[in-house]
Specification:
Blueprint lengths: L28 E6 L26 H7 L5 E7 L6 H11 L4 E6 L8 H8 L5 E5 L8 H4 L3 H12 L3 E4 L4 H13 L4 E4 L11 H15 L4 E5 L10 H8 L7 H15 L4 E3 L12 H13 L3 H16 L15
Parallel strand pairs: 1-2, 2-3, 3-4, 4-5, 5-6, 6-7, 7-8
Length: about 325
Amino acid sequence: MQAMLGAGALGLTAPASTAETVPAPSIPIIDTHIHLFDPRRPQGVPWPSKADTVLYRPALPGRYRRVTTGLGIVGAIEVECSPWLEDNQWVLDVASRDKMIVGTVGDLEPGQPSFRTQLERFQRNPLFRGIRYGNLWGRNLGEQLSKPDFIADLEFLAAAGLELDTANPDPGIIAAVVRLTDRVHSLRVVIDHLPQLEFPAEPAFRRALDANLRELGTRPQVYVKVSEVVHRFALPLTIQHALTGGQVPENLNFYRPILDEIWDIFGQDKLMYGSDWPNSDHSAPIGQELRIVREYFSSKGRAVEEKFFWKNSVAAYHWVKRDSSQPEPGKA
């Protein structure tokens, strides 16, 4: 992973095309990371804030359909963006009205007395595919792993056939996922937004992080979302602004070192596409990031591209086919 911070091979030559869309691929795409929320609700939303002029407007399936028209995306998995218990139900209700949504990842707290009751409530809906826990809402996965009740609840989650997404990668949570998968072997774990991971400057910490990532790469129950690619830069912001004129680079070569390192560690059976819409709007339209990752993975052959864009998501989430345009999970 050291190349993720290097300045070599960035490919910052001529500007890339400014196109914001990509041709509809023959391979169907399942987007494994979108958020749904509606600030117009009487209770509002815990995220995003009103100060966020890019995001603070309804993000609902109809709008997602419009911004992905022509991109080949046929289904999406919603990932929680609220710690409010009843927002799990709100998302399930919204998802039930649009067949584009093939699964949701909710927000519940393992280790709490009500966890199993709440999980049993929401998992009655087949769209409920797991929960997210990590560096979000003031929580810390590593701190919880020494608590027997927390581990027992994650074993309960695994026994229910559900998965765990981790939030916002840093060296601490990567180390915690190693410890977690040591303790709960049967739990499927999805690491979100790995291209955003910052590598420590201190050599010993860098080696430790690299060792943990490579260990996770050997564990069949661990999956990785190649999401927020255009958020992650290989140079300090001030330097890259000088090189790119302050624009988000659209050239695959700028991101290739990051993608190569992730590919080298996790390979073809663990990586999945995720857009992080609408949070991704802070950097680029969804089509721009999709074009970058599609160019990268299409160069590895159709079989790899199919795994990345939908087959691996079946293994990770066991999502529900709801529309004829969506691939058949049983054929993954």
